[in-house]
Amino acid sequence: MSSTMRLVLAVAAVCAVAVSSGASFDLGPIVRVAQCRSQCLKKHSIDGSCEWWRHGETGCNECWQHCESLERQWGGIGNWKATAAAAQQQATASTRGSASCDDYEYKQCPSCKTACEYRKGQVVEQYLPSMLPAPHRAPVSLTKNDVAILMRKIRQEWKVFDYYPGIRTPSSLRQDEWIVAVVEDGGVTHYSWEEWMPTLDSLKEGPLFEATISWRDVDSQLKHQQVLEQKRFNDRVRQFFLEKYGEKVLEWRNQDEDQAIPEEVFRRFFFRRKDHESHQIDENSEPSTVDSEDERKQTQVAKESFVVSWEPETGGLMGNQVADSDFAQISLLPGTKYLVRIASNEGPGSFPIEVDTRPSSIQVHRIKKNFENIYPWAFLAASMCAAIIVCIIIIVKLLRKGKEVEPEEEV
Hints:
By secondary structure, this protein is α+β, with helices and mostly antiparallel strands. The protein is about 45% helix and about 15% strand. Strands 2-1-3-4 form a four-stranded antiparallel beta sheet, covered by helices on one side.
């Protein structure tokens, strides 16, 4: 076969891989870097940090930086969209196979050898967000040798902001933040600010239980969460001003009656809106307003599919089903309590709900469903009817009692 023909076939193979891979959001490169850096912390860190300026942490920092260099060289970090990723892996396979961790550069940097040896043993493969377990809520809690990847949403796309050793990971999350963490044993977990859950619409009995799951109210759930976050922020603002300026302002207010601070100005000082004071308190604590409702709706439309994921609460066989709409029907085994969530290849996805197919919980579900079908006005109407009937009975009894009383004869 001629060299020209080989080149044409190679280009065709790359194009085929690009088409088949689609535009998936691949976490594989950053997860591999974090796993490598966890080894650096484990073998070269003294106190769980890896900063180059700290005494005794220079070697750890060299290993830390070398993990990303190796991923760029062998795995193609930065390719968030997995276009032709497999072709690139094939192209770098020969380089990676022939690379040695005993070269001259590793004699000059012994700690870099840790990254090299660990990275050579890693398997390069896609890691989609839908493969993640259910997210956790803040505060973020990690151990010394864990590594956190802080990501922020910029123009509706998640971008890596920074990597943190476990003990230096931010404990709280802003509205536009998502933390993917690699634990010491190589496992992956994540923390999400977006707390929304799907709804169990129905659960039909049979040889396999048929559960209908929907997630039509995601926007309203997130909007409610934003309102609560805004309230918590306003409370922090009030507390800050009261602690910092409260006594002084009260002193000025009561100092001179002619120049006293009016009630309206006084209240505006202590109860300002977030827009005026957010940058004066703490930039990290300010709720983000990056995602408006319109932008969120556009993002929801742009997403091609969701993945309904379920697993037994005690562990066991997991299931996944792709859904192109905002609801799905899944089949579950009887006698098992499941955790069901909506995963997404574009972000952290939902928190799980419990779907219980055990006999005792089925009866409870039926009772709840029956009560859900009864509207408040039905209770009101029934109560009024009962009250009217009672009044009629009382009136009838009084009338009968009056008729039964005979007048006494005069002597």
